[in-house]
Amino acid sequence: MATTTEKLRIDKYLWAIRIFKTRTQAAAACDGGKVKLHGTSVKASRAVAVGDKYDIRAESRKWTIEVTGLLDHRLQYAEAIKYYVDITSEEDLQLNQRVAASFHTGKRPSKIGRPTKLDRRDLDDFMRNED
User: Fold this and answer.
1) Is residue 3 part of a domain?
2) Among 69, 91, 97, 109, which is most exposed with the fewest C-beta within 10 angstroms?
């Protein structure tokens, strides 16, 4: 665990507390203006301090967190959540739920697109009987 005298980068901290899956994603979010301290975008190299409050916007979610401890390496989720307090507003929590419900999973909706094997066999039978 990092001590309070060490400098800890915000991208490393966000990765360690499991807000982002990779440190690269955390750095990209910082560079893209998606991580803010007091309404101002922060760079990935900014030092984290206990008591800082960050607004974080990810692809499918929005958080507001307060730093309660410094963590410089990844731990289990149950341990990592002890290093911050989620102070996300009720309005943003409801937005997160709506977005999660409609978030695209990459799967194709049922009965749309390519025919199934059964559909293809039925089409083949139909085409053979017509000739």
Assistant:
1) no
2) 109
Is 0.90 topped by the overall pTM? no
What's the CATH number where 82 sits?
3.10.290.10
Q: What angle do CA 99, 101, 104 make, to 5 degrees?
A: 80
Residue 84 pairs in a beta bridge with: 67
- Residues 61-71 have pLDDT tens digits of 888 999 999 99
CB 68 within 8 A of CB 29: no
Q: What are the backbone angles phi and psi of residue 10, rounded to the nearest 5°? A: -65, -35
Q: How many CA atoms lie within 13 A of 78 on its CB side?
A: 0
